[in-house]
Write a structure and sequence with these properties.
By secondary structure, the protein is α/β, with parallel strands linked by helices. The chain is 41% helix and 18% strand. It contains 14 helices and 13 strands. Strand 4, helix 4 and strand 5 form a beta-alpha-beta unit. Helix 1 crosses helix 14, helix 4 crosses helix 5 and helix 7 packs across helix 10. The longest helix has 16 residues.
């Protein structure tokens, strides 16, 4: 089997992590995998690191280097040529723009089993033209994977014609990457991160965009400081929205928190950073799944998270999680309570269902089913 995966750009995002994990797992099954990135990556350093890693693993990468504002038709022609040259058995796109392109590209020429994966829990398109294009793209899609039940319900409501094509495959992770470190390694990482021995280390992982709500964490940090708490707060994630990143920087300066709050940007060692930390913070306004929260939980890290469906569902698995509405004072209180639990008592948590192995198996089953649907591309099964 030959699979062509499509992503937005070469970066360390949640959807991209899932794709890279699937590729790694499938390569062990002698499945030929290609990776197609639509946009030119804005983080050239991380892009080069990922490209080198892919090359070492023998994974074939094609970058279309689409630029924001570039016409859809020209990019579509490039994609169609690439797919013709690769000649995959299955195309699996991840993310709103890749999903739209994959479906439309499959409307003419050679038909390919095409699966799109919806990772977002919100309306992706601000304008009618993009919504119309996504609606059209569904005609070229065999199956639409949603990463959670509430995401599937919202997508079916938005695009009723997708109802018969939707399937739910919840995300999974490789637990071996998130084992808590030894006390010595943990202390070494904290020293490298500039965290004093008597300070708590808090961490958030997520793209720097308003929906992830990092600005709220600056308010929480101000409350913690006013309560006399010594701490460091790491904000880890792609600097996707430059204006929003600058807003966060200005807020930390305004509140005099530049020593306590550090913006680390995109990192490929999230497991190490989680292992060094004391509490995970996840204040998202909307999440389809909450992959970063699952990673923290697997590492044995207690969490304070926002009261939204995905966070509530995952937090049912851990008695150490606190689901709280957006009240900075209450967050500060819950963080202090969680810090009373000594880190040496932390252990890796096991969540057998939420594994990469299960997720990869679910996708493989769907790829096989999708191949049998090519004769009736406009339809699907429930």
């Amino acid at each position: 089997m030959k699979i062509a995966f499509m992503i937005t750009s070469l970066q360390y995002g949640g959807a991209e992590k899932i794709v890279l994990d699937l590729i790694g797992r499938f390569r062990g099954l002698s499945i030929e995998c290609w990776l197609i990135a639509l946009y030119e990556s804005r983080d050239r350093v991380k892009r080069d690191q990922l490209a080198e890693a892919l090359e070492r693993e023998g994974i074939r990468l094609v970058e279309l280097n689409k630029r924001p504002g570039e016409g859809t038709f020209r990019s579509m022609l490039r994609l169609k040529r690439v797919l013709r040259d690769i000649s995959p058995d299955v195309v699996n796109a991840h993310g709103p723009v890749p999903n739209m392109y994959a479906g439309i590209a499959n409307l003419w020429g050679r038909k390919v089993s095409t699966i799109t994966t919806v990772h977002n829990g919100t309306d992706d398109w601000p304008d009618w033209k993009s919504k119309m294009l996504e609606r059209t793209s569904l005609l070229g899609v065999n199956r639409v994977v949603c990463v959670a039940q509430h995401v599937a319900e919202a997508y079916r409501l938005k695009y009723p014609q997708s109802t018969a094509k939707t399937a739910i495959i919840e995300n999974g992770i490789d637990p071996q990457r998130y084992a808590p470190p030894s006390p010595a390694v943990r202390a070494q990482w904290r020293e490298m991160l500039g965290c004093p021995a008597d300070a708590a280390l808090l961490i958030h992982v997520g793209r720097m965009v308003p929906l992830k709500n990092q600005r709220f964490l600056v308010e929480v940090a101000e409350r913690l400081r006013s309560r006399g708490k010594k701490f460091r707060l790491l904000l880890v994630g792609n600097f996707e929205d430059d204006r929003y990143v600058e807003e966060i920087r200005q807020l930390t300066e305004k509140h005099g928190l530049t020593e306590q709050v550090r913006l680390l940007g995109s990192r490929d060692n999230v497991g190490d950073l989680l292992g060094a930390s004391d509490v995970f913070l996840f204040p998202s306004e909307v999440e389809a799944f909450g992959l970063a929260l699952l990673e923290a939980m697997c590492c044995g890290l207690p969490a304070v998270c926002s009261d939204i469906p995905s966070n509530r569902k995952l937090s049912e698995l851990s008695a150490r999680n606190r689901v709280v509405d957006w009240d900075a004072e209450r967050w500060a209180e819950q963080i202090e309570l969680l810090l009373e639990d000594r880190p040496e008592r932390r252990r890796q948590e096991s969540y057998p269902y939420w594994t990469l192995e299960r997720m990869a198996g679910d996708y493989l089953k769907l790829y096989g089913q999708s191949g049998s649907l090519l004769a009736g591309l406009g339809g699907g099964t429930g």
